TrEMBL record, chain A:
Gene name in the database record: LOC113727031
Limits of the GST N-terminal domain: 3-82
UniProt key word Transferase: yes
Native species: Coffea arabica
GO cellular component: cytoplasm
Gene Ontology MF terms in the entry: glutathione transferase activity
CDD domains named among the record's database cross-references: GST_C_Tau, GST_N_Tau
Annotated Gene3D superfamilies: 1.20.1050.10, Glutaredoxin
Keyword Oxidoreductase: no
Pfam families attached to this UniProt entry: GST_C, GST_N
Protein name: Probable glutathione S-transferase
Entry's EC annotation: 2.5.1.18
UniProtKB/TrEMBL annotation, chain B:
Lineage: Eukaryota, Viridiplantae, Streptophyta, Embryophyta, Tracheophyta
Annotated protein name in UniProt: Glutathione S-transferase
Subcellular location: Cytoplasm, Cytosol
GO CC list: cytosol
Superkingdom as given in the UniProt entry: Eukaryota
Transmembrane spans: none
GO biological process terms, semicolon-separated: glutathione metabolic process
A GO molecular-function descriptor: glutathione transferase activity
The enzyme's E.C. designation: 2.5.1.18
Stretches assigned to the GST N-terminal domain: 6-85
């Protein structure tokens, strides 16, 4: 019986990219449905009624929501080219750092991104502390799990792209090669990796999108 | 206590819902463990050593190696102690579904925290959010977890991750309602969740884990009065 795999995504969602990469790494064929989140399709709302978000993976009609849950589902369903380590302790480390990336790192980078100029120094402190912790994890490794791309690289993938976008928009260097040699080199390796590099959303479109978003936040924060 | 071969230590705090999850999971799986009560205003050197990133409880230390984050710990326990009672089902789609709803119960806790943080005059919106999440949870788990429509299957032998999560969040629901003079769980609005938690807190295993009512009311009121924000 032919398997039917569909992925609901947007053109820019870093969460959805995790699944694009995972499916590509496993060589799984699937249909893509691009969503406009200002005008959600009935299918998306049917498959993800609680959150109405992307990504949603639909496998033979059954929906799986939440990107990290989807990654584990993909890994457990298509067991070749495993994304997660086999050892339970290593697995727990991977899950811990993926949660850290989403909860702490992303929040602190975002706070820096939308900070007014006078608040940037303070916002940068937390972001840099979190970056240092990630830098530690990459010592002696090309990718988070070693020589090949895995779960944690996909989880942090959004960061590889967003850093350069933030740096361009804000005209600052966040991840400099001297302070973060391992992180810098991970970013380079990951951005250029064969399976990864063809999937990045168009950079110019991303710059415009995030510039507009930043201006909106800064305008809202300015006392009238 | 475990022998040197399989030593499990849980660093926790008696009122923390995150710690309760791990405590209950360890009991369900029959894993002997040592418990270390932490004073969160004076954290032990071990806690700071084992969880340098967040400096929080729970931390599970298995043969000297620390695992942090309650949900990460639950998955770890299931994978290492893979025979005997399992917190997650075996089939990938069911696992994904249980993981989704376990995370959703965590979101319910976050909404309850928002409720606690709000001033009495500003209760309405956060309370609505809690009720909405309870409704979603009730509708969401009904089909796959309570196909007969009631918690008849709940027993000490077949507790899983969703039961663990629910106990951690709603086990002390009466204490939370008393401490904050709000109705969180209404049997008329959420009959299934109400009867589910009632069935759970009757179990001796669960009774061992849920904090005593008066103690819980006391600590919640104290925290609120001292301006603590979750």
């Amino acid at each position: 019986m032919a398997e039917e795999v569909k992925l609901f995504r947007t053109w820019s969602s870093g969460y959805a990219l995790r699944i694009v990469w995972a499916l590509k790494l496993k060589g799984i064929e699937y249909e893509t449905i691009f969503e406009d989140l200002t005008n959600k399709s009935p299918s998306l709302l049917q498959y993800n009624p609680i959150h109405g978000k992307v990504p949603v993976l639909v496998h033979d009609g059954k929906p799986v929501c939440e990107s990290l849950v989807i990654l584990e589902y993909v890994d457990e369903t298509w067991k070749h080219n495993p994304l997660l380590p086999q050892d339970p302790y290593e697995k727990s480390m991977a899950r811990f750092w993926a949660n850290f990336g989403d909860d702490k790192l992303m929040k602190s980078i975002w706070q820096l991104f939308i900070a007014r100029e006078k608040d940037q120094d303070v916002a940068a402190v937390e972001a840099l502390e979190n970056l240092k912790l990630v830098e530690e994890q990459l010592k002696g490794k090309k990718f988070f799990h070693g020589e090949t791309i895995g779960y944690l690289d996909l989880a942090f993938g959004w960061f590889a792209d967003f850093v350069s976008i933030l740096e361009e928009i804000m005209s600052l260097k966040l991840v400099d090669g001297e302070r973060f040699p391992h992180l810098s080199s991970w970013i380079q390796h990951f951005m250029d990796a064969p399976v990864i590099r063809d999937c990045w959303p168009p950079r110019d479109k991303m710059i415009i999108k995030y510039q507009v978003m930043r201006e909106k936040y800064l305008a809202a924060a300015t006392p009238k | 206590m475990g022998s040197g071969e399989n030593k499990v230590v849980l660093h926790g705090m008696w009122a923390s819902p995150y710690v309760k999850r791990v405590e209950l999971a360890l009991k369900i799986k029959g894993i002997p463990f040592e418990y270390v009560e932490e004073n969160l205003r004076n954290k032990s050197p071990q806690l700071l050593k084992y969880n340098p990133v967040q400096k929080k409880v729970p931390v599970l230390v298995h043969n000297g190696k620390p695992v942090c984050e309650s949900l990460v710990i639950l998955e770890y326990l299931d994978e290492v102690w893979s025979t005997g009672p399992q917190l997650l089902p075996k089939e990938p789609y069911q696992r994904a579904n249980f993981r989704f709803w376990a995370a959703y119960i965590q979101q319910l806790l976050e909404s309850i925290f928002k409720l606690f943080n709000a001033d009495k005059e500003a209760h309405e919106k956060p309370l609505q959010e809690v009720h909405e999440k309870l409704r979603n949870l009730e509708d969401g788990v009904k089909e796959f977890y309570f196909p007969e429509g009631s918690p008849n299957h709940i027993s000490a032998e077949n507790l899983g991750i969703l039961d663990v999560m629910l106990v951690s969040v709603l086990g002390p629901f009466r204490a939370k309602e008393e401490a904050f003079s709000v109705k969180i769980l209404d049997p008329g609005k959420n009959p299934l969740i109400f009867s589910w938690i009632q069935a759970l807190i009757e179990l001796p295993l669960v009774k061992e884990v849920v904090p005593p009512h008066d103690k819980m009311v006391g600590v919640l009121q104290f925290l609120k009065q001292s301006g603590f924000k979750f």
